[in-house]
Amino acid sequence: MTTNKIIDLKNNNKIESLKELLLNDKQLSLDICNEINSWNGELDQFDVCSNDEEFFNVYFNDNPAEAVRAAFYGDYKYMDEYVRFDGYGNIESLDQYQLENEVEIYINDIIDAMIRNYSHINIYNDELIELIESIIANDN
Question: Among 21, 54, 56, 122, which residue's beta carbon has the most beta carbons within 10 A?
Fold first, then answer.
């Protein structure tokens, strides 16, 4: 086995550990997505807001007709916890289960973005920091 293959295997194990950590703590995953989005907006599918009056006041201030249009042409349910804009500027809503399901679907994209943007984002989980730094060290 070549040295590169050994390093790849070590990183694969670390990436699997990283994946397990993030999937077991979906809120941590969403916090990481928010950090990345604050830096470059790369994971904009996780750019969600609470489905409350403040969202509508911030994005549709003094324009209730636009709010109605965005909800009508989007996929909006009043009782869902979160809202975001789709690619057309319409509102789509989702609940906690749907948001966590998307974390599972896009976990590899989240990990990739987190490793690439590591030096630009704040991470407050020591185990996560240790794993990412060891992956980065093995790549160099």
Answer: 56
